[in-house]
Each structure stands twice: as structure tokens, then as C-alpha cells.
Amino acid sequence: MDGEYSLSPVGFLRTLITAAGWILTVSIAVTAARVVLSAIYNVYFHPLRNFPGPKFAAATPLPFVWRLLNGRMVPWTMKLHAKYGVVVRVLPDELSFIGSSAWQDIYTARPQLPKPTFGVLETPNGIRSMGIIPDAETHGRQRKIVSHAFSDRALLSQEYILQKYSDLLIDRLRNQPNLQDGTLDICSWYNFTTFDVLGDLCFGESFHCLDTAEKHPWIASVFMGVKAAQLLTVFQHFPPMSTIVKMCLPQFVHEEAQKSFTFTRQRVDKRIASKSDRPDFMKHILENNYPGGMSREDVDATTTLLVLAGSETSATTLTSATYFSLKNPRVFQRLVREIREAFKSQADITIAAVSNLSYIHAVIQEALRMHPTGPISVPRQVDRPDVEVCGMAVPQGIRVGIPQKTAFRSPSNFVDPDSYIPERWLEDADPRYAQDDKAVFEPFMVGPRNCIGKTLAWVEMKMVLAKVLWSFDLELSEKMKGGDWSDQKVYLLNEKTPMYVKMMPRG
Ligand code: HEM
């Protein structure tokens, strides 16, 4: 009897291979059928079916995901909005808007439209920083505590920190051997300055980037985390993949995250143990915290966010303001004149004094328009019926957002959108620019989750730029004369490339 029913090992293997073949074929067929059916549903039956946009992007996340991966989201959304207008369906379930009223409709809606938890960067203990907490109540509670560190009074008491690092920048630049040969990358130096300022404001101790002329490894690690988080968002568009990919992340990614987490904890420990009364962020956070406000873990996570959000953005804008001004000699000359006529010495460049200058303000504003630091959409989730954006009813379950760079460079919002014209922001602006829809320009966003560091960013950028242009004559390096420095890949943040200049010390 046994012999009749037993299989030889070869027979068993053959049966196994045949069965595996069938399973694979059926799985592929089922997946293909699902993909085709969902594409048909998305294009012809989905609640967004009547919104304009390319059919392929309506059918599948692939075109969007491809741009996320190759960093070319900005040119893609620019092309789409140029073709389809104020609203474009960029994903089966996401709409992109470039009309100015979208800011109020999306980002100041009450109750808040939640921030999707896509690709969020958690610390290894699972705690999220204030910037990525989805729950409005928890976010609001933490933000209220942190906001004490950004009051006008706090800012004035922090001025000496801004003075210290902007002066150090000038000293260090003066001593660079390559100052005049066109190989000095001003972008890195701006970054060193803003990292040192934020290190000092958060931890009571800088990263010594200006001293060493190098990025601290912690900074590199945190930025790698941001890019990884952005790339991980790709898999959220293919739900089962997301969990699998997170589980399969290579060991070094976890080790890197753990290392940078430990570094933050140690720095925060040290700052708290110092019991110092210096007027940095930590003093205000600790003084205004209360049981149930922010846990120690919340403080760690939010400190990392503050360094990241406060350094990269200001350095990018300083670089683009320098780049665009140098590319436009008329602008550069007017800017330099304003600064050099206003100040007799570098020491006169104070927060109060620099805040009175109008042209430097317009120069930085126009740099933020040409090259915003958050170039792509940071969407919100429509979590209820009856939401309207730009006068259009948006169904529940959809994500909506504004891609800043596309909105700021759109000819439907600005006259000569690709030209760098600070004059459009002046009170006595050229009437040609009266047509600009300035309400669309919100580089710091609006609403309860807008930039908490906006005022600090403005004074820091003006002070650093004014000191550089007061102390040096600048020229673009030959290397920068062709091409467009601002045409950069984007992985949530701009992937900045070097910006080479020649600098001649004055006096
Ligand atoms: C040119 C300079 C800056 C620009 C253009 C900028 C822009 C922005 C934008 C667009 C957001 C909203 C991001 C989102 O919702 O995902 C944001 C949030 C934030 N920014 Fe800034 N930022 C700048 C400088 C700073 C500085 C200097 C700091 C502080 C040191 C800072 C701290 C923050 C924080 C903590 C948040 C999160 C706020 C919250 O979730 O409540 N930023 N910023």
C-alpha cells in the first residue's frame, strides 16, 4: 500500500516546482488584475475623476513616485500646472493647488486638516517631534511651550549669539587661503554659521563647524534621516510594501539613527545639568514646561527638529540671495550700497539697525520666491466632508497641498516669474508688478503649524548677509556663470550644490 502512494524525491520536487509555478502565476495574474482594475476605477469612477491632470497620474502613483525617487518633483509639477491650471490631480488621491486662497483653505482650516504621517522621522524610542505630531491638541500644547523661546524678548536676548557667530564667520572667511581664487563655497560657510547658531541656541554649545570648517557628523546623520524618510514615503503609496521595507531596513540605518539619538540625549542632558541661565531655547522650554506638557523625550525630539529646521532653511536662503544678487549686478550694487551707506562699522550691524533696511528685505524675499526652502507640497489630509479649496469641493480622504516653488514661479501668480526682481516687494514697486498675486507667497506657511522661527530667521539672515557684504567685495566664480544653481534635486529639502564665489576683503 505504502508504495502506491509514496512519491520519489524527484517526483516530489517536480510537484513542488509545478505548485510554486502555479502560485506565482496566479499571484501575478491577481496582482495585475488588481492594478488594472484599480487604475480603471481611479480614472473613471474615483471621486476625483473630474479633476484635471494626466491620466497616468490619476490611474497609479507611479509617475509621482518616480519624481519622488529621482528628485525632480518640481519641474514635473511646474509642467503640470502650466498645462492644467490652478489644480492638478498628481496622485490618485492627491490634489495640488497653486491658487493663493488655497493657503487659508488648507492650512488655516478649523478644525485643522491633519498632517499625514507619511514618511515621518521618529526617534528610535518612537517619539515624534513637534513638527510631525499628527494630533492637533498635542502639537498645540508643545508649540505653546516652545513658542516662549521665539518671543520678541527672547530674540533680543539671543542677539549676542547671532552676533558671535556672524562675526566668527567674517573672521574665518578672512583667513581662508582660497578666498579669491573662485573655489570658496559660500553655501557651506553659511551652513556652518547657521548650524553653529542653532547648536548654541539648542544645546548651549555650538557644533564648532566654523572652527573646523566641517559639518559635524551628527548633522550629516540627521540629514540622511530626512532623506531616508522622504524616500520611505514612496512605499506608503504601495501599502503592504511600507511595512516590509521598514522591517528590512539595513542594520546600519538603525545604528545611525541610534547614534544620532544618543548624541542628542547627551547634549540635552549636558545643557540641563549645567543649570545655566543663558537665554537659549532650552532655558525657555524648561522654564515654561509643566507636568503633562512636554516629556523629556519630547524635548529631545523637538530639539533635533529645531536644529534641522532652523539651520538648513536659513543657509539655503542666504546662498540663494547671494547667488541671485550676484547674477543681477543692478540688484547687487543697490544692495551693497544700502548696506554700506547704513553702517559705519561691522559692529553697527545690529538686529534693530538691520531691520530698518528695506532693500535687503526685498532681496531675501525674492530669493525665497525664486528658491523656497520647502519647494514641494507638504499636504494635509481632508478628514471630513464639505471642505472647499479654491472654491472647489474636495472629497473626504483626499490629500491637498501647495507646491511652493511651482506656485511662486507660476506666470499665473507673478509677472516675469523666472526673473529675480526684488523691486516687486518694495512699497513703491514698479506698477508692472502690481498684477503679482503676492498672497500666494507664503514661504513660512500659514496657520497653527507655520514656521515658529520666522522672526529669528529674518534677523539672522539679514545680519549675516549684511556683515558679509559690508566686509567683502564679492564676485561669482567662473564656475557659476553657466547653468542655474537653483535648479536642484529635491528630497523634501533642496539638495544644495556648492556656490563658488571670489571674495575680496575690504579695508
Ligand atoms: C528661511 C528660513 C526658514 C523658512 C523658509 C522656514 C520655513 C518653514 C516652513 C514652510 C515650515 C512648515 C513645514 C511643515 O509644515 O512641514 C516650518 C516649520 C518650522 N520651522 Fe521654519 N523656516 C525657516 C527657519 C526656521 C528657523 C530659524 C527655525 C528655528 C530655529 C525654524 C523652526 C521651525 C519649526 C520648529 C517648525 C515646525 C513648526 C510646527 O510644526 O509647529 N524655522 N518652517
TrEMBL record:
It comes from the Eukaryota. Keywords: Heme, Iron, Membrane, Metal-binding, Transmembrane, Transmembrane helix. SUPFAM superfamilies: Cytochrome P450 (SSF48264). Heme binds at residue 451. Coiled coil: none annotated. The keyword Metal-binding applies. The chain crosses the membrane at residues 20-45. Belongs to the cytochrome P450 family. PANTHER family: CYTOCHROME P450, CYTOCHROME P450 MONOOXYGENASE ASQL-RELATED. This is Cytochrome P450.
